[in-house]
Amino acid sequence: MKRLQKLLKRFELHSLGKWILLASLIGFVAGLGAIAFDVLGQFVVRYSLTEFAGYQPLDAAGEYNRFEHRSDFFSPWMIVVVMAVGGLLSGTLVYAFAPEAEGAGTDAAIDAFHNKRGKIRARIPFIKTLASAITLGTGGSGGREGPIALIGAGFGSWLATRLKLSNRERRVLLAAGMGAGIGAIFRAPLAGAVFAGEILYSDADLEADVIVPAATASVIAYSVYVQSVPVQSRFIPLFGADLEHTFVSPLQLPAYVVLAVVLFVVGAVYVKTLFASQAAFGRLPIIPHLRPAIGATLAGIFGVSLYHWFDRDLNLLGSLGTGYGVLQIALTTADQLGIACVLLVAMAKILTTALTIGSGGSGGVFGPSMVIGGCTGAAVGLTLQRFWPELFSEPEAFAVVGMAGFFSGIARAPISTIIMVRALTGDYGLLLPTMLVSTLTFMFSQHFRLYRNQPATRMESMAHRGDFIVDVLEGLIVGDLYQKDRKLILIPEGMTLDSIVHRLAYTNQDYFPVVDADQKMVGIFSDDDVRAYLYDDTLWNLAVARDIMVDNFLYLTPEDDLNTALRRFTSHNLDELPVLDPERPGVFLGMLRRKETIAAYNQRLMELKQSSED
């Protein structure tokens, strides 16, 4: 680590070069972390669900099964037992060693960025990897993005701390690691880079500083991760290369607006159910180590019960695990599932995810969101096809758009989600309706936020506390505020102290500009400067203004911004500063008070906050 510090200093890599070098290191580690997480998760599936329940969850078309195995038996209720054991192991691991690793990892990374100076304990990525692999591998309903995002973010934070970088630099590397993990595990480097900057805020704001480092880290992580996948499936999108839906007619747009409204309602239900589950499990009078086991057991019972209630339809078990297998069918042959099935999977996925993640189980919420949104979209598409088969001949198109629109709204990340879904599906024919639906759900879902630690904008982030004082003050100038019409006493430089004392007795003025015979300012003094002479009246007729004034004084011009003014106020602890004409040196124009500067800043800040709320 010391050698790396010396390298950075030796080659003066202070800007872009430094970020590319450090981001490349983060990307390499994030890529290895993605491989380890993928292998470990599939290993757990093979030797838990498959071994004891005879159940091999369906995969997406582009996924590579590292431990393929076919069982000659199937015991549905053993799934519940496996999930209960998995929840117990995961909960014990998390709450014994790193309680911060519970739940969704992305929200923990967002919290560290804004509220913890970018610091993540070094053990958290390791605990998160193990706990999430166990949770998802044993059938818990969750996603892969949270764990892998926290792995990359954790290494970025650790590297910045070891190199003794600033808090700002640590935050940038944390976000770069988060984007790298996402870009690798979903084979979507561009989406990972944009996600890292966009997911940090709930309004239409972006952390622009992280984009280039995140892009570099994401490309490296993706390149490392795909080396673990066979060549024949290395560059295939996660949901296959055969999704080529088209936007047929503008007449379909009203139907996509309806889809946006449906996704908004389902998204609100999802967020409320998830948070209600977290609150309910938090009130249980038991040690937290046991809560994930209870949540996983309940989720398993519900998922297996659905399977039995509806003619042993294996597709309904998509409510457990990642659910990517049933989503794959919804994206390719939705009519094979039917309206009732996709709706059941979507609604069941909400409940099983709330039970798994809400109880403290370790996993992400992006994956379930894809399943919920895709199945909801498929249900809308199949319904429309039933009434207007000529216009809506591809209900699967609504599933693709639903994936993006659903997560865009509740995660407050429309741009990266659009890019992500395009990369996951390889389907670029639906860009227009995807943009429409994602924009609408983003607008509708302002009060339903999946990640609680997202501030609305940079202005409200602790990471940028102080930045906007400068930004706001730089937008205001002295010429707008200084007192032009105030009748101020100007003191000739030859005026005796006796005359000055008598003038001070009849004014509330605190600072007195001193002018020469040409009425040009040559100095200034305060009433405190005069008080030093009050007890020695023998000097009153001897001393003049030139003797008590400060000739090397600070001043402002009307064109100076208020940031400059505030720096000069604070550098010498002054309450007022003279304003001089820049075109005519020494010509006095007026005085600017410190309290007026602060009042102007506060007023401008309130205006900006009000405009952002509107």
From TrEMBL:
Q: Which UniProt keywords apply?
A: CBS domain, Chloride, Chloride channel, Ion channel, Ion transport, Membrane, Transmembrane, Transmembrane helix, Transport
In this protein, which residues make up the domain named CBS? 484-544, 549-608
- Identify this protein by name: H(+)/Cl(-) exchange transporter ClcA
**Pfam families referenced in this protein's UniProt entry, alphabetically:** CBS, Voltage_CLC
Q: How does it sit in the membrane?
A: Multi-pass membrane protein
**What Gene3D superfamilies does the entry give?**
CBS-domain (3.10.580.10), Clc chloride channel (1.10.3080.10)
- Answer whether the UniProt record assigns the keyword Ion transport to this protein: yes
- The membrane-spanning stretches of this chain are 20-45, 77-98, 172-196, 253-271, 292-310, 365-385, 397-421, 428-448
Q: Which organism is it from?
A: Stieleria magnilauensis
Annotated compartments: Membrane
Keyword Ion transport listed? yes
Q: Which domain of life is it from?
A: Bacteria
